[in-house]
TrEMBL record:
Assigned keywords, A-Z: Oxidoreductase
Molecular function terms from GO: FAD binding; proline dehydrogenase activity
SUPFAM superfamilies for the chain: FAD-linked oxidoreductase (SSF51730)
PANTHER family associated with the record: PROLINE DEHYDROGENASE 1, MITOCHONDRIAL, PROLINE OXIDASE
Gene3D superfamilies tied to this protein: 3.20.20.220
Name listed for the protein in its UniProt record: Proline dehydrogenase
Alphabetical list of Pfam families matching this protein: Pro_dh
InterPro entries cross-referenced by the UniProt entry: FAD-linked_oxidoreductase-like, Proline_DH_dom, Proline_oxidase
Biological process, per Gene Ontology: L-proline catabolic process to L-glutamate
Length: 292
């Protein structure tokens, strides 16, 4: 109960601009916080990030690079995000790593409309290295219908995407059906946002069971399956049934497991977010590290 309250409280802090401003009020407090956040963050600058990508690639990992940000609701801000990805793609072109790009749709103007977002995402698709894919993050459930519309529209144009499906959402089996029809690979996560019981299963057994069902649904439907979880029981049960599934993990979480999976011959991709807006992401990870 106490840990569940603290998880909820930490989620509250993760979305509190006042708390973020307080932490970032002085260089000293910001550096102190960043020192703790660093394990989860590829870098604040592009130079640091390129170094992290190089290190991950040398260890046999694929990388999924995401420029921090969410809820970007002015076009000028969205254009700056696109320019950031352009800079990153150029800086990474020499690293030779297996790098996917990831987008949080609301960081690319989803709240301004699906078409606005789509126009900007199309530019990012052009930046993808050969053989690479664009992974589309899942956000709060109120954004899911628009993220689905965006994903299916882009997939209809032939964009090489990976969709993210949250196991905790009750709508997910129906979303998976639509993604299967469109031939879009699915990355399965438990779900990082606090949702109401109307739309979501509780954290724990109900979400874990939903995860297993959805993974089998994706596999039976013939789409690529990506297991984005650090839960060793779920992961091992599914890898035994679907050895071809890829695994994705967050930078800084259960790194020994990630290395062991590479040694066993599995494809492992590390989600590596970067940029100046690391605060909310870090708070969510701290909340998850508390458990339920
Ligand atoms: C590649 C990737 C992409 C993701 N993308 C999205 C997305 O687009 N939308 C979304 O809603 N969610 C996303 N998530 C987050 C996901 O929904 C979960 O919130 C998060 O992964 C924790 O769930 P878990 O499956 O690892 O299981 P848990 O049961 O939370 O964790 C299993 C074990 O992993 C370890 N662990 C987990 N988190 C931490 C941590 N922060 N620090 C230290 N140890 C930890 C603990 O040992 C824990 O017991 C993503 C996760 C991954 C791995």
């Amino acid at each position: 109960m106490i840990s569940s309250v603290s998880r909820r409280a930490l989620y509250g802090l993760a979305t509190s601009s006042r708390f973020e401003s307080l932490v970032k009020a002085t260089g000293y407090t910001e550096d102190l916080a960043y020192r703790a956040a660093k394990r989860y963050v590829a870098g604040r600058t592009l130079d640091e990030t390129v170094e992290t990508v190089r290190r991950l690639a040398e260890s046999g990992f694929g990388v999924c690079l995401d420029l921090f940000g969410e809820g970007n609701d002015d076009e000028e801000g969205v254009r700056r995000v696109v320019a950031g990805y352009e800079e990153a793609a150029a800086a990474l072109s020499g690293t030779g790593g297996d790098v996917y790009l990831e987008i949080v749709p609301s960081n690319l103007g989803l709240d301004l409309g699906v078409d606005v977002c789509r126009r900007h995402v199309e530019r990012l698709v052009e930046l993808l290295p050969t053989g690479s894919r664009l992974e589309v993050s899942a956000e709060e459930s109120w954004r899911t219908p628009r993220i689905m519309d965006l994903t299916l529209a882009l997939a209809g144009d032939g964009a090489p995407l990976v969709a993210t499906v949250q196991a905790n959402l009750k709508r997910s089996p129906a979303d998976v059906e639509r993604l299967l029809e469109a031939g879009v690979p699915v990355r399965l996560v438990k779900g990082a946002y606090l949702e109401t019981s109307e739309v979501a299963h509780p954290w724990g057994e109900p979400t874990d069971t939903a995860y297993l069902h959805l993974a089998h649904q994706v596999h039976a439907g013939g789409a690529g399956l990506v297991l984005a979880t650090h839960d060793p029981v779920i992961r091992e049960a599914l890898l035994a049934a679907v050895p071809s599934a890829a695994v994705e993990m967050l930078l800084g979480v259960r790194e020994d497991d990630a290395r062991a999976l590479v040694t066993r011959g599995h494809t492992v991709r590390i989600y590596a977010p970067y940029g100046q807006s690391w605060f909310r992401y870090w708070m969510r990870r701290v909340a998850e590290a508390q458990g339920t």
